[in-house]
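Tip: read the tokens left to right.
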């Protein structure tokens, strides 16, 4: 990586995002770090999103637009990775906002610590908060404190309950990972030969284990650098079908086994696996028109979960159950306080 001004590629999958897309792209163009390759991947949008992308490309030479048939977010992210030429890679969702210091501060942290990935903090916002967020996101701010994490895969699997993160203090909070690719800055070589599995809802869960396993060191920047817009119609908040739940079960199981083989206890995937099977069972119980295929699939997932959990020791399963119980309670509060944002 060049020591002075490395090129940073920012990949933005775009699909039917005309309502918020300009806010997102404006926040990227407004980055204090200027040496950017901005890749807007029009994933077969049927609204004005593609035209908006082309407008930005005609106004700023740093913007490149790729128009492709709809293939889902994994396909769009892969299309961006295939053409990215930057020394570092970042992602941004098409309705979110990056703080103007996002790339500058993450890049400084990456270079100072010689880490494989730099990550920042984020806030969830509602649509009504967009005007104030846009203003605060453009304001200058000092770089936050840095914390090094030398075991990223273990941190990802073990630190995921908000309650325990609060009780553990700043060091524990810094070790918090999730599957999201935004508010991260990656060294380009991490993605060599690695691509998202297309045609699935939970492409980020499948990627988490293999990606974090490649990293020797991660640096956390204690600073809000990203704003995640909460929309009731987004896939994360609204897509609740047998296919969605099943995909989450399989993704958690794949990541569970990948992690366990590397000598790390997959506590996060214990929660993801059991929660997704529970959602499947509840969805089946509440669907009087469920097909026999759906019932067979749920039962197969339930048996597969039991076999997978049987690979853990009894003490590990107990810890997993405790952590999962805490996380489920937190999710109830999260649904009320965060998903209800307007």
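Filled-in amino acids:
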């Amino acid at each position: 990586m060049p020591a002075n001004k490395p090129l940073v590629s920012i990949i933005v999958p775009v699909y039917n995002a005309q309502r918020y897309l300009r806010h997102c792209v404006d926040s990227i163009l407004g980055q204090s770090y200027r040496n950017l390759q901005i890749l807007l991947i029009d994933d077969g949008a049927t609204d004005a999103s593609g035209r908006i992308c082309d407008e930005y490309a005609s106004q700023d030479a740093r913007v490149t637009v790729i128009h492709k048939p709809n293939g889902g977010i994994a396909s769009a992210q892969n299309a961006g990775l295939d053409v990215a030429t930057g020394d570092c890679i970042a992602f941004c969702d098409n309705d979110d906002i990056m703080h103007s210091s996002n790339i500058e501060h993450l890049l400084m942290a990456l270079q100072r610590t010689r880490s494989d990935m730099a990550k920042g903090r984020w806030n969830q916002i509602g649509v009504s908060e967009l005007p104030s967020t846009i203003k605060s996101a453009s304001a200058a701010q000092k770089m936050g404190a840095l914390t090094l994490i030398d075991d990223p895969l273990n941190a990802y699997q073990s630190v995921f309950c908000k309650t325990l993160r609060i009780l553990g203090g700043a060091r524990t909070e810094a070790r918090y990972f999730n599957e999201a690719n935004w508010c991260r800055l990656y060294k380009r070589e991490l993605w060599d030969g690695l691509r998202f599995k297309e045609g699935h809802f939970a492409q980020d869960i499948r990627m988490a284990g293999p990606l974090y396993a490649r990293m020797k060191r991660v640096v956390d920047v204690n600073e809000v650098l990203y704003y995640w817009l909460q929309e009731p119609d987004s896939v994360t908040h609204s897509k609740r079908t047998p296919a969605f739940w099943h995909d989450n079960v399989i993704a958690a199981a794949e990541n569970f086994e990948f992690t366990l083989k590397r000598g790390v206890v997959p506590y996060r995937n214990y929660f993801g696996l059991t929660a997704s099977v529970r959602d499947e069972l509840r969805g089946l119980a509440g669907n009087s028109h469920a097909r026999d295929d759906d019932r067979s699939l749920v039962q197969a997932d339930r048996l597969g979960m039991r076999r997978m959990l049987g690979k853990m020791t009894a003490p590990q399963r107990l810890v997993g159950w405790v952590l999962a119980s805490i996380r489920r309670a937190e999710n109830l509060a999260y649904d009320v306080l965060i998903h209800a944002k307007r």
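The longest strand covers residues 218-229. The longest helix spans residues 314-337.
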